[in-house]
Design brief:
With 262 residues, the chain is an all-alpha fold. It contains 13 helices and no strands. The relative contact order is 0.12.
Amino acid sequence: MSDETPDVKPAEDTEPGPAPAAAATAAEPISLGAAFVGVFFSPRETFERLVEKPWWTALVPMAILAVVASAVMGLFFSRVDTEQFVRDQIRQNPFASQMSEAQVDQAVEDAAKRPKWIQPVIIFFGSFIFYAILTAVFWLVFLAMGHKVTFGRSLIATGWAFVPTLLGSLVFAALVFIKDPNDIDLQNPLITNVAAFFDREALAKPLYAVLKSLDVFNAWVIALLGFGMAAAGRSKVAGAVTVVAVLYVLVTLVKVGFAAIF
């Protein structure tokens, strides 16, 4: 009889190891409250878990942002001098030069007669239209690039990516009480972009449009949209952020061209 014993495979080769912690974390559900916090502090993991939820969960941040924006604008219009505000808006409009003084007076008179609740209502429903259009654009672009992404996942990525703008709305609300509302430039109310540090009248319109696009909140949203669309399409974050940034640059170029023409 041979004294040799058969080879025994080590136990570590026969027993499967534990599942990766990252995979386990991604499989865990995430509450909507935790998602609001996660968007700020751990966006990549948060979006990877959010896109696994039903599409309608995107309506939660959208509704909150729309309600807050409507309430803040309602506050603004309740405190602002409507006639002066309308005249300032007409003066800043590129087509204002085509209006006679009588037409301007008529526009101011019509605006003064409108109920103050109309503008907040328009902002509320307009917010959802904006999110829907933006979602459709991202969805179609990423589909065209070969990513397997659904409209529902794109909607979640878009809706949750705009959560940081809630901070901007709250700061604007505080600004309405701190400053005279008639002195607030509604087209650029916060000091979050480079253009806010310059006199608009002293800059060429195309340059002002470029400087206005260099905004902290815009950059923040672009990054979050990249995280969200990467999770929605199971693609690399760097590539998704690049796509979103390129689309933003194209929109900015359109604004610059419009400002140059008018």
